[in-house]
């Protein structure tokens, strides 16, 4: 990997090694993973193919660093995280570009992700100094109760490629702020953003061993197993697919580890007859096609009331006509490529399946052969039985379904095993409260397609996850310890 | 089972059937489980041996009752729980007696447990109406964020025999207050306290299907599996042993269920040289021998500083000389029987092992053959390698070990995979903070052997558990839902 | 006073003496105050005319009782308050009747007030055991910070006649729960509800001296001054008019007393063009005419959008045609009398003033001579300059004003020095958030005319008050004490 | 005033004008106030003598700026305050020097104050984005309650000379973070630190009119009155003497303004027989002599148990022998001058009074004539009747009194009308809890003489104040608004 090839201002942000105990290291085997730019299908560079031994070493390093780091004051960790925030802000352009290069999203989106990512570091720095315990009145006259919050210990962090930086920052920020040390397994598709973040944390003063990053692709089975089953690790935080989540949760059960999971969604997007159609169309564009449909909170099923169905469909089609797919570095590009071939196949399969069942293609419907670009697609009259209505597409496919009543659409929206995000558009205050309360999801967007903010509790219910990130998410990395004082008289 | 044989004022509190969808039912197979009074080894009565089919029926009933119950106001649930609290108080003598009959603990302890059990019902009634969500300032000008708390859904509750009533109340109180419905699997040794509680809940106005209780012994494998793997159930709350906890957590992973676990402990009890020895001895009596040593927060390892070791040992032996084992219904009894033969064998094994390794028997050391009574035992100079120092005895065995320095004893105390409770005795404010912070447990008793109160966060770290009960424990039964409002201008 | 004349089931709830240090006492002077039933203008009975000496004695008694009461556990106080709650529920009919007899409101309203009053006692019982302090992470490594909540001390409580029971319960509940002792000055118009409450508190186990009640009319100046200026008293809680509030606040400044004030309001009630008119009319009936318009959160100014003005006016007039004024004990009565002649005069003055300025009388407009009954009145086209738009009427006068734009009506609504409650009717979610945020009041009713609940923070901004009652209102009776621990190593 | 005379790196931090509506202005009258360096008694420079007209203009400017500033997002205000924090850190040396020049404290103390001052700006920036409201479960099925926090409006800030920067930052940080605008009246002795802070706030992007600073000396009566009585101002925050506090509170009552007061203390400092004497002596040096005894939390009365009295006295005297009074800019100086002649006279009067009543002078006891330097003084056997035991000395006078029992010293410590801080030294955990709970103060130092941190609730009880600053102190600048939603079905 030629660092200069990335076109960054600060070449030294490009790291092509894993990071263990404060040192940049290669795999013992010497093997590497090739990382590709999805827009060009060219190799960006390589990172080491780490395995079980290196993972154990990383966990050991984290364990070794824990006693000292966990005893630092919250203010000390706050100040280091604030320095990291400042560095992420200072290197905004480079970090945004790096995201675009390895993930494919547009530069605007890449920079947006860096800002979002940095916002978690700042937020958790501020949360660190607010990890209040309690003084709890006792029913016994001569007893005093207090609780204190203590770091949970060594944390395993496993994250996906669709937010190469932000998913790590959301976990790592909470973990470091709490006083934990961490081992990160970044996604093999997008490791460079992770490694750049680690490098900046090092520059900010995070001590050796506090953060470790282990890159892996083919050894992911043994690496993930060790991260979940190690007796040293006390917490696993994972963002990714529901099947993998279940597997990791099962492995973590062997030591009763605390587990946070942010798994797959299948977000309904509902447009009622009393919606502001302008708002609904604009939100659909963002909510469905952001990152070319590759976010876990993207709308997956679009339900539109019959009385506004035609209008909504035609206006969305009109907006989509202005989309321009291409390399995210190109300023005119509105939508980048998908991450890889498997992603392309799934979108095409969802389109073909729906069409076979009677759906009509209003816009797009196919990919550009030999590339990772799929034309943003709008399907009309998608039947309930279509796969897109029960599986997450994770691509630029907007599938419209007509509905008649509030009760019907609530039932449709809730007819899935997952429950991450849901969206609806209505102006009536009564319906707003009713629908917001009834949607079986962790997060509801009402008249908006954008819900992500560092301050909110991000996470799902049902099979979409366990725990919440952002907001009070530092709690996920802390134990509440009760201290009961007796013998006071 | 002859209800009158129990000697209760209100015979109708004795229920010998399981409870599903508001009806008292037998097993389809007609099979029953014999329940024995451990003090007399006589049969108290029988309960049905339910299986997979009945468990599914119970879960279905809970699911059917959920929509209406979950939509009641928190105040409505508060009022019903307050009625249940009043009924438990009204039937205090009967409920205490029932606990003594099936568990063996003394009547004082039995009534104490009923009061403790009722305190959870009252506490969670009051918590129901305080399940506040938040209004969260947004970084975006035209966005408003709020969060609300919603019941998590159908809950599986699995509890042990050592607190036949309180362990259920601590879970059920939180679940009902939150708006959840529940399926309870009580322990086969002590089902009657559970069923009496269910009966009182019914009288208090809990609707059909909201609480279901399934008794089982030999079918426990299939029943437990269904309670953890059912797609309908959204939460499992378990108190019991660590190995079972791991198994249930593993099964629950298959649907990413939220799991609360209160598993085994191995509590250190440390007496420093600056301790008040009176306090320490008195606390050891309570903390080690309460319920004849059969609580998860009982002291398991007693570390005494060399300078006060002899004094502590002789004074504890003196106190133990006044113990009187016997039927808990007998007023002069201070300590009741163990629960069953397996329990007897484990205590004897721990004694024999320690003695074989060089420990000295200061008091007791053996059982009364043909009974479930084990003489409260005090061992001196127990070596580190003894099983009692690494396994929970769950019986009336106090094992003393000498130590020299604060650092040494902290290391000893923390050298275990579990971490529920820990106790220490010291008067120095500096040591108090240091040791309280360093003990790797969820709950610390400082100069006291009693930590349990409805108001505190009960639970452990490491392999002792997940989540906290009591205190803010209603959170374990609720989802936080985010609602983001856009389109406001 | 003939207790039997009140027609209560439990005659002993009628107390005609003041209560100091656990004893029912007369005034030293022997003077009394005559209490009249406003529906019949007949004397109900008398209470003592206490003065400065008795007030000092009451304060001294409260001071003497403080050390012991303040040291009881929160759970102990919780249990006593729960007994008081149970007694208030048990005597529901009597207490409701008593309110009707001395205040004039209908029996439904009287009983409603008793339930509301009792709800504060229950609420604060439950709050007592939740007065959590904090453990605050320190920026210094060897420092530990905790805070605890302690009762503020002796509290002076001064309340008005329009809620003879609930205004006292809202303050007394918080004060007792916190561990404070209290001196109450009930209103001379309605002292019996206060004294009955005190009697029930005594029966519930509140110790001597913890609650004291001093009745006064002509000596109110010296009594109030002592209650505010005494060096012993640490807190004054007042509900009443803004001018008196300012006077008491000024007196309290002499000792830097903590002061809670719930003073006058002048609630706007806004009906937008997108309102549900059914809801708005129904709410206006409740919000304007509840207690015959004599509550501090009654609508005082009704602004209706021009497009729905005629409809709203005619439908409100229609509803008002069904009103029946009369003795509150009569089941057919919908609206009772005003409290006294001064109240009658003010309403008539507001009507006359508005009519003189051009308003039209749609319904009512005058009183029944020789009684305290004023015909519920509806005025149309009330000009901005009318007194009713700048002064609180505190009577059954609904004054309608037409408006055109959201901006205009917000300006009108906010053009007053006070800001307690405000109401508006609109279905649009955007307007709902906008208007709710812009109204300069402490409490907003959106599509409802009823906001009072024990769980909410009741109170105003601007010249309507200081502090909040209900909800977290126990805080008003507690000090936060910081404890910083050093020297830990 | 010659800016260069101050010796700052950035001369432009020296502002000699008041600041109104974004402009640096002189008094209309042209009059000025002379500001003196207390170490040299030379004039440092002048600031304008503003009066009523300028105060009204400042209030009007704050009112004009309010609508826009209060509508900014909390994150926007957070970011501006973070910039201010960065600027205060960048100009650390200059700002510390400025404090030393006008206040006299040593440069170490001056810089320490700047760091402390900046810590409030950072803290409240972070608090701004955490001003959570609540979603409150309603007892009514179709009602939803939420609360939001809104800025209280225009704030008046009045502060003393002993912390020229930090007292302003503690208030201004909270006010700005909350979305309020402010008028500051800095002390005439030390206006330059205030004006430098205002200048940096301007550079950080605080808009015109949001902060205004009005300097005054002889017109302080009319200025203070307007700041408290203006109908525009909604909140007064004052730090200073108790008599002035009472006066301002009285004036503020005329509009029911919300008032925060941090007034005088008279801190007891207790050394028990089980204290660590090293710690106690070291703490006494800091706690009594910090800022030459001129802080409101300085120990004022030192009670030492008879068994350790002699040792404590001699060791404190020994430490004091190493004190070096002098110009704070001189590195060897440990203690600077007093602020002015009045302060000198009070200390001398307290010394003379105690000696006249029988106290013995162990160290110091007099001033250096013609200067503002008073020799740090240690008095032994100070009788209870001495003025130093009932009045705040606010100077370098340590007055020792012997005691025998815990009960006696608690009584002595509490025998005062004020209650800000209190300190005690004891190692026993039982005594620690007992004494900490019994001291009638807002803040307790246990085995430490330093309690100040931005994170803690700073403030007193009794006549020492109203409200708390730091910690959750942003609440003092916000109103809680309740929004009740009805009509939802």
Q: Look at the structure and name the CATH superfamily of the largest domain in chain A.
A: Aldehyde Dehydrogenase, Chain A, domain 1
Quick one: overall form of chain A? globular
Rg of chain A is 23 Å
**What is the average per-residue confidence, as pLDDT of chain A, rounded to a whole number?**
97
Low-confidence stretches of chain A: none
Describe the secondary structure blueprint for this structure.
The structure is a homotetramer of 489-residue chains.
Chain A: E1 18-20, E2 23-25, E3 32-37, E4 42-48, H1 52-71, H2 74-90, H3 92-103, H4 107-128, E5 133-136, E6 144-151, E7 154-158, H5 166-178, E8 181-185, H6 191-204, E9 211-213, H7 220-229, E10 233-239, H8 242-252, E11 258-262, E12 267-271, H9 277-289, E13 299-305, H10 306-321, H11 341-356, E14 360-363, E15 377-380, E16 397-403, H12 406-414, E17 418-419, E18 421-425, H13 429-438, E19 443-446, E20 461-462, E21 465-466, E22 478-485
Parallel strand pairs in A: 7-8, 7-10, 8-9, 10-11, 12-13, 12-18, 13-16, 15-16, 18-19
Antiparallel strand pairs in A: 1-2, 3-4, 5-6, 6-22, 11-21, 14-15, 17-20
Question: How would you explain this protein's 3D organization?
Answer:
- Four copies of one chain form a homotetramer.
- Chain A is of the alpha/beta class.
- The first copy, chain A, folds into two domains: 3-263 and 464-482, Aldehyde Dehydrogenase, Chain A, domain 1, CATH 3.40.605.10; 267-453, Aldehyde Dehydrogenase, Chain A, domain 2.
- Chain A is built from 13 helices and 22 strands.
- The first copy, chain A, has helices at residues 52-71, 74-90, 92-103, 107-128, 166-178, 191-204, 220-229, 242-252, 277-289, 306-321, 341-356, 406-414, 429-438, and strands at 18-20, 23-25, 32-37, 42-48, 133-136, 144-151, 154-158, 181-185, 211-213, 233-239, 258-262, 267-271, 299-305, 360-363, 377-380, 397-403, 418-419, 421-425, 443-446, 461-462, 465-466, 478-485.
- In chain A, strand 10, helix 8 (242-252) and strand 11 (258-262) form a beta-alpha-beta unit.
- In chain A, helix 2 runs antiparallel to helix 4 (107-128).
- The radius of gyration of chain A is 23 Å and the shape is globular.
- Chain A starts with 17 loop residues before the first strand and ends with a strand.
- Chains in contact: A-B, A-C, A-D, B-C, B-D, C-D.
- The interface between B and C is medium-sized, with 13 and 13 residues.
- Strand 22 of chain A pairs parallel with strand 19 (443-446) of chain B.
């Amino acid at each position: 990997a030629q660092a200069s090839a990335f076109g960054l201002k600060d070449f030294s942000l490009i790291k092509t090694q894993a990071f263990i105990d404060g040192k940049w290291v290669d795999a013992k085997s010497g093997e590497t993973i090739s990382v590709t730019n999805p827009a060009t299908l060219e190799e960006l560079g390589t990172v080491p193919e780490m395995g079980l031994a290196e993972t154990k070493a990383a966990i050991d390093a984290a364990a070794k660093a824990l006693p000292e780091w966990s005893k630092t004051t919250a203010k000390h960790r706050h100040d280091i995280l604030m320095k990291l925030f400042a560095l992420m802000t200072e290197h905004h352009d480079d970090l945004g570009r790096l995201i675009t290069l390895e993930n494919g999203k547009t530069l605007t989106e890449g920079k947006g992700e860096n800002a979002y990512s940095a916002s978690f570091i700042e937020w958790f720095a501020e949360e660190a100094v607010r990890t209040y315990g309690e003084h709890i009145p006792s029913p016994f006259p001569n007893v005093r109760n207090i609780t204190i919050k203590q770091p949970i210990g060594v944390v395993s962090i496993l994250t996906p490629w669709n937010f190469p930086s932000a998913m790590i920052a959301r976990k790592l920020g909470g973990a470091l702020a709490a006083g934990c040390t961490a081992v990160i397994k970044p996604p093999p598709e997008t490791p460079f953003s992770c490694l750049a973040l680690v490098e900046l944390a090092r520059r900010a003063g995070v001590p050796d061993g506090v953060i470790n990053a282990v890159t892996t692709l083919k050894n992911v089975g043994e690496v993930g197993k060790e991260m979940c089953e190690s007796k040293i690790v006390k917490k696993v935080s994972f963002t990714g697919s529901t099947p993998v989540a279940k597997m990791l949760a099962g492995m973590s059960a062997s030591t009763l580890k605390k587990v946070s999971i942010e798994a797959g969604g299948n977000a309904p997007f509902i447009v009622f007859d009393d919606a502001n159609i302008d708002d609904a169309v604009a939100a659909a564009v963002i909510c469905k096609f952001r990152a070319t449909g590759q976010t876990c909170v993207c709308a997956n099923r679009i339900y539109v009331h019959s009385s506004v169905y035609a209008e909504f469909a035609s206006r969305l089609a009109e907006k989509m006509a202005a989309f321009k797919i291409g390399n995210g570095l190109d300023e005119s590009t509105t939508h980048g490529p998908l991450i890889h071939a498997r992603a392309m196949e799934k979108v095409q399969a969802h389109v073909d399946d729906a069409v076979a069942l009677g759906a009509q293609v209003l816009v797009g419907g196919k990919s550009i052969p030999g590339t990772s670009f799929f034309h943003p697609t709008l399907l009309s009259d998608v039947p309930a039985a279509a796969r897109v209505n029960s599986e997450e597409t994770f691509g630029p496919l907007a599938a419209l379904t007509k509905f008649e009543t509030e009760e019907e659409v609530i039932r449709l929206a809730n007819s899935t095993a997952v429950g991450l995000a849901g969206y609806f558009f209505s102006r009536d205050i009564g319906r707003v409260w009713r629908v917001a309360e009834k949607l079986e999801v962790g997060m509801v967007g009402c008249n908006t397609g954008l819900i992500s903010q560092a301050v909110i509790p991000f996470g799902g219910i049902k099979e979409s996850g366990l725990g919440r990130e952002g907001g009070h998410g530092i709690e996920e990395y802390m134990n509440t310890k009760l201290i009961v004082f007796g013998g006071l008289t």
